[in-house]
Amino acid sequence: MADPAKHPADLPACPSAQGGGLLPPELRAWMLLRATTGAVEQRLRSVVKERLDVSHDEFLVLCLLAEQPEGGLRMTRIAELLGRPKTRLTYQIACLQRAGLVTRRSACGDRRGIEVTVTDQARHLLEEASGALAETVTEALATCVGPAERDALSGLLPRLTGEARAE
Description:
The protein is mainly α. Helix content is 59%, strand content 10%.
């Protein structure tokens, strides 16, 4: 397991979790979360390409679709959840469809809407790669998130659950 105190050169350094800057705790925690996500994504890119032969953005689409118990998601909803422009998503979905990893169809009751569903082939690939992907995420988090970062991030949770925050 990686030493949480070290930040390798290939990972972006997390912003200060100690505070003392201009940012309020909530914004500082958000920036830490963004930096942590970036570090994980950077590590995942090569594993995703090697194991699944898709881009990182296409991988995110597959993950969203794989978590749907039944059916798929409308393209507009995928774009919202990933914060991606619809035009870029259309290209990514087309690439995934050519690879046999998703299917597209008109949304029920709305011929303008397109629903995307993950295929059995994609589910199988994700299942095969899940161990390596999970290990990559764990290692990236261990490298980027230390005690100070955990404390800063946990500062957001009481407010989200309605609990009073201890100062």
